[in-house]
Amino acid sequence: MKVVLYPSYFSDVITLSFAYSAQTIIWEGHGNYVKQTYRNRCYIAGANGRLALNVPVVHTGKGFSIPYKEVQIDYSEPWADNHLKSIHSAYNSSPFYQYYQDDLEKLFSEIPELLYHWNLKTFDFLIRNMSLELNFEETTAFKNDALANNLIKAKGKPLYSVDHYIQVFREKYGFLQPLCGLDLLFNLGPSSIAYLKSQNKRLRHS
């Protein structure tokens, strides 16, 4: 089975659940860049509730569309350091954060120029540490895929949901979703892959 996805910033748990059983993921990067999506945003569970981490991008001016693959990251502000600090603050007390901390800091020390490539690296970080083996292709032209379009949206109520798992600050805020894959990894560690397997079966029949 092949699944079309847009590379997103530390893909959320719902997207990872769909990706779990895909024999091949086809990355879509030819369509125009769209604001307020998971292309440059992810959510973590912070001390004050769900917290958005946004990657700033270089804007080309009003009314001008640019392919997703060509969007450049804006380095005029220290967003990477801020994101690392926020992630550390949120997950330092989680069961597995310290186990992956060094690899995460290394990832943030080698950020490419293009958002598309950075998102591929964050996805690789997640699946590698979750021991999830997948094959990949890239589209050669824009592929307007309904599932990919639904999963990349960061605004509005999600069309899908996942079962509860242990989270930091759960006693204060209840179960938060959708959150990025870092939340799953830091809370469940090696058990993340078993969780994704269970969610994939449920989402496929929802």
TrEMBL record:
Highest rank taxon of the organism: Bacteria
InterPro entries listed in its UniProt record: WbqC
Name of the protein in question: WbqC family protein
Organism: Nonlabens spongiae
